[in-house]
Amino acid sequence: MSKTVLVLGGDGFCGWPTSLHLSALGHEVVIVDNFVRRRIAEQLEAPSLTPIASIDERLNTWKDVSGHDIDIVELDIAQDYPELRRLLASVRPDAIVHFAEQRAAPYSMRDAAHKAYTVDNNINGTHNVLAAIAELGLDAHLIHLGTMGVYGYVGDGREIPEGYLDVTVDGPDGARHSRRILYPTKPGSIYHLTKSMDQLMFQFYAGNDRLPITDLHQGIVWGTQTEETRLEPALINRFDYDGDYGTVLNRFLMQAAAGRPLTVHGTGGQTRAFINIQDTVRCIALALDNPPAAGDPVRIINQVAETRRVRDLAELVSELTGAEIEYVDNPRSEAAENDLTVSNATLTGLGLEPILLRDELLTETVDIALRFIDRANLDTIPATALWSGQAEREVPQLQAPRFALR
Ligand code: NAD
Ligand code: USQ
């Protein structure tokens, strides 16, 4: 059944291919974005490795290729509540997919101004969306992109469940009481902290206002292209590789293409969860088709295909490309080694057959990196944001984005 779907952050790495996929499936898609990601890339002097067309060119090309219209609304969801409310009142979407947050952990840890920007943007944005849906009494399913990082990386050998933990507590009368609680969070950065705080807001609005909410705890996304973005050069997805926004596997693939060593932080014993961008868009479509009922607890789903150790990924890329591996000081505060086992029962139960790391998709990403390597600013490869000790080491200072990026 065709739905009207608002995609918040629909110009970004996950939001753009999702918008195209939902449009291809016959849904009416409206993208909402303030284009801050494009401005941050300029400020960092780290443009997407792939050339990103203007939003108008992207949407016109999609119309030519598919025959489908996607509308675009430029709006800051964190700062302009009245406009957001007006938009929701006029579109009255069946679903809202919320990608519109500052999503880089290193960027969120640069300094106090970047911490404040990340908190301000992510918490206000999420809260504004919830408040507007509740105030208007909309029957809209909110699908939010959360992160695996809210669980932390304790590695006690137990499988991480999907969002909730069943516990038993002692009552004053000696009786034992069963409780289902949100899995205790252990965020590793200010960015991950905002995702942990989002969870509490969802819990409140799902209970108090009976909003149907799905929170997708996604792993690290790798790859660039999806079935739809491959159709025309102007539809190509972004490819971030810099020390702030480049995620580990895409960074390794780009570093290999640039003839640079693969920068493994510390021992590379960190185990993380991964998912290919093609599966990201499939999972959103599955979530859209399977909303919780009004009054249900928040539906938390782990959007993950597999887990891998960082040094094993480096070895895989090195075998594929011949790149050298360099073990560098870890700029982050994180466990040097951890195990990670994660349940992804909901999505596999809904029929997802996840793409696993395999040569052809890795090769496609390296080929894209090689094609556009001349556009890269190699100076932005080192990860310079530090989790601690900023006072002792020199960190390039950026203007506070709150004021510079509006
Ligand atoms: P991105 O930065 O490429 O896209 C985010 C988009 O939201 C950008 O287009 C940006 O301009 C927009 N935006 C940000 N703040 C906004 C605001 N206040 N108002 C309107 N638009 C705003 O990030 P992404 O990689 O596409 O990530 C999307 C979501 O998925 C994020 O919430 C992120 O936490 C989550 N996620 C991403 C990954 C990953 O590996 N990329 C993994 C897990 C979860
Ligand atoms: N790492 C390296 N070398 C590098 C870059 C990273 O060893 O050059 C290591 C990091 O120290 C970390 C791991 O790789 O241990 C993952 O780092 P990352 O930058 O790929 O991922 P992260 O900071 O966790 O954030 C990314 C997205 C974020 C999303 C998260 C999912 O930017 O939006 O929420 O992945 S998760 O990690 O599951 O929480």
- β-strand percent reads 15-25%
Bound molecules: nicotinamide-adenine-dinucleotide, sulfoquinovose-uridine-C1,5'-diphosphate
E-strand count = 14
How does the major sheet shape up? 7 strands, parallel
Give the CA-CA distance, first to last residue. Answer: 38 Å
Number of helices: 13
Average residue-wise pLDDT: 95
Low-confidence segments, given as residue ranges, are none
From N to C, what is the helix and strand string? EHEHHEHEHHEEEHEEHEEHEEHEHHH
Q: Report the C-alpha radius of gyration, rounded.
A: 21 Å
Structural class: alpha/beta
Walk across the major sheet and give the strand order. Answer: 3-2-1-4-5-8-12
Helix content: 25-40%
Shape: globular
Description:
Helix content is 36%, strand content 18%. It contains 13 helices and 14 strands. Helix 6 (112-136) packs parallel to helix 7 (190-208). The protein is globular and about 60 Å long. The two termini are 38 Å apart. The protein binds nicotinamide-adenine-dinucleotide and sulfoquinovose-uridine-C1,5'-diphosphate. Nicotinamide-adenine-dinucleotide is lined by residues 9, 11-15, 33-37, 76-78, 99-101, 103, 121, 125, 145, 147, 218, 220-221, 247. Residues 103-105, 147-149, 219-220, 247-248, 251, 263-265, 268, 270, 272-273, 310, 330, 332, 334, 383 line the site of sulfoquinovose-uridine-C1,5'-diphosphate.
